[in-house]
Automatic annotation (TrEMBL):
One of its GO terms (biological process) is carbohydrate metabolic process. One of its GO terms (molecular function) is hydrolase activity, hydrolyzing O-glycosyl compounds. Residues 371-566 form the Glycosyl hydrolase family 32 C-terminal domain. This is Uncharacterized protein. Keywords: Glycosidase, Hydrolase, Signal. It comes from Gossypium darwinii (Darwin's cotton). Residues 51-368 form the Glycosyl hydrolase family 32 N-terminal domain. Belongs to the glycosyl hydrolase 32 family. Pfam families: Glyco_hydro_32C (PF08244), Glyco_hydro_32N (PF00251). Gene3D superfamilies: Exo-inulinase, domain 1, Glycosyl hydrolase domain, family 43. Residues 1-26 form the signal peptide.
Length: 574
């Protein structure tokens, strides 16, 4: 159950020590004075146009996305009474394409002893007979976190509007002795193996992150396994775990129960202490019911991430209609709580992404779902444009505050690449990005895009590459640096960054950025490295926003081809 703003570890520790104007319960920011203060009017300036966002109030974790009888269902944590965390219910929207949404009444809300103090995150599983079941975390009157089930009241209703909690069955999982009942939440989608359903619940034991494994024959009576599916020391609470199979080659997704020699498994956890999502690629040992990460995957803070920016509490699901696995992720605000209350809303969802295994089998690839392209409007192109040192060339003719930009850069020569300093860390790209920024001249780079830029560049969000050379290979850094994004004070403006595991044999690097008023969601090298930034410009807004291609490196870069589209608003009925 993720409810705090995205914070670096250092800021997080500071936050634990002193919180202004609020009290702290576990790691959640609690503002009782604002929880039921619903906005009279909603400020539209920085609201997104094509990202999922309800008309007002607070949202956080995506819950139990699923496809059922031709309809995509999206459940999410929502405060119907205010723009801060509190009063949480499972909001429910439906869609035919995951772009145009219709809002329904909440599916789950606190109503019984087993969820009286909270109905938190969970997952959906489709049982035999085409029967969907939701497992979710409830908080009982003693603040114990328990796992509960809910089912549709009427399977003939195409929208599954009403959900009920079967009488006498909940909680279906109660934390037993030795399990931390205050850190025991977010059950996964279940999978079937050898006559039993299996699912995982996130937890911690002291500072060890835990993925507790449970088995059931009937999806009602669950028994805890003797050992966890996986655990790792010094990683803290594992929120929102996700466990699923993935093919060794190709983009096709798999149902959660699929096994085989051509399959790897992904275990994702959301680390409460860092507020980032991490995953490993590994092997599910079915005879032992254990998951073992490959030796190229690391548990914890130095590990792989879906997104190296503002992205948390993610959840995937298998889409049987198009044979793909879809990833949803929460993108929180980076302004202040008082800003959220004033504007009347907080939180969006990232654009749904398909995920598949990189051909190198060491990491995942991600790309926005194809349906997003139906919103593309006016198109402009730039081909074979030379970018010399200091150039910033405007991409004109589109709505730069609401755009989809896809560009391929060509690097004529790799001879004058800046050496990678042995004192720099290969596990802390963000620190390197903060050190170098978009202005410090390198050999090859920084080059990329200036998004949400004001005419005279008082404000801009640069998304860019830098290339370094070690003794063995080229090292590619992708940055999305919010430090210059706004003239407003009091914002969280980090230099988000990730390294890109890419072969530069063809001397090309691609970048796609989805720009939507207060979010820049970027995909480097075809989706190898993704970064989402929240920004709040004061000048570069609406028709005053500009977009530039730029190069501040000593070596010339060529824009081989650039396609940019103005994006239309979806038919949003939320």
């Amino acid at each position: 159950m993720a409810v705090s703003k995205l914070l670096s570890f250092t800021l997080f520790i500071t936050f634990l020590c002193a919180v202004n104007n609020g009290r702290v319960e576990a790691t959640h920011e609690i503002y009782p004075q604002f929880q039921s203060l619903s906005a009279v009017s909603v400020h539209q300036l920085h609201r997104t146009a094509f990202h999922f966002q309800p008309p007002k109030n607070w949202i956080n974790d995506p819950n139990a996305p699923m496809y059922y009888n031709g309809i995509y269902h999206f459940f999410y944590q929502y405060n119907p009474k205010g723009a801060v965390w509190g009063n949480i219910v499972w909001a429910h929207s439906v869609s035919k394409d995951m772009i145009n949404w219709k809002a329904l009444e909440p599916a789950i809300y606190p109503s019984h002893r087993f969820d009286r103090k909270g109905a938190w995150s969970g997952s959906a599983t489709i049982l035999p007979g085409n029967k969907p079941v939701i497992l979710y975390t409830g908080v009982d009157p003693n603040d114990r976190q328990v796992q509960n089930s809910a089912v549709p009241a009427n399977l003939s209703d195409p929208y599954l509007r009403k959900w009920i909690k079967p009488a006498g069955l909940n909680p279906v999982v109660d934390p037993e002795a030795g399990v931390n009942a205050s850190a025991f939440r977010d059950p996964t989608t279940a999978w079937w193996l050898s006559g039993h359903w299996r699912m995982v619940v996130g937890s911690k034991r002291n500072h060890r992150g835990m993925a507790y494994l449970y088995r059931s024959r009937d999806f009602i009576h669950w028994i805890k396994a003797k050992h966890p599916l996986h655990s790792a020391p010094r990683t803290g609470m594992w929120e929102c775990p996700d466990f699923y199979p993935i093919l060794l080659s190709g983009k096709q997704g798999l149902d959660t129960s699929v096994l085989g020699k051509q399959v790897k498994h992904i275990l994702k956890v959301s680390l409460d202490v860092t507020r980032y999502d991490y995953y490993t690629v590994g092997t599910y040992l079915t005879d032992e019911d254990r998951y073992v990460p490959d030796n190229t995957s690391i548990d914890g803070w130095a590990g792989l991430r879906y997104d190296y920016g503002n992205f948390y509490a993610s959840k995937t699901f298998f889409d049987p209609a198009k044979k793909r696995r879809i990833l949803w992720g929460w993108v929180n605000e980076s302004d202040t709580t008082s800003d959220d209350v004033r504007k009347g809303w907080a939180g969006i969802q990232a654009i749904p992404r398909i995920v598949w295994l990189d051909p190198n089998q060491r990491q995942l690839m991600q790309w926005p779902i194809q349906e997003l392209e139906t919103l593309r409007g006016t198109n402009v192109k730039m081909n074979h444009q030379m970018l010399k040192t200091g150039d910033h060339i405007e991409v004109k003719g589109i709505s730069a505050a609401q755009a989809d930009v896809d560009v391929t850069f060509y690097i004529p020569s790799l001879d004058k690449v800046e050496a990678f300093n042995l004192g720099w860390s290969l596990t802390d790209a963000q620190l390197l990005c903060a050190k170098k920024g978009s202005k410090v001249q390198g050999g090859i780079g920084p080059f990329g895009l200036l998004a949400l830029a004001s005419e005279n560049l008082e404000e801009y969000t640069p998304v860019f590459f830098r290339i370094f050379k070690s003794s063995q290979k080229h090292i590619v850094l992708l940055c999305s640096d919010a430090r210059s994004s706004s003239l407003k004070d009091g914002l969280y403006k980090p230099s988000f960054a990730g390294f890109v595991d890419v072969d530069l044999t063809d001397k090309k690097l691609s970048l796609r950025s989805l720009i939507d008023h207060s979010v820049v969601e970027s995909f480097g090298a075809g989706g190898k490295t993704c970064i989402t930034s929240r920004v709040y410009p004061t000048l570069a807004v609406l028709e005053n926003a500009h977009l530039y291609a730029f190069n501040n490196g000593t070596e010339t870069i060529i824009v081989e081809n650039l396609n940019a589209w103005s994006m239309k608003k979806p038919l949003r009925m939320n």
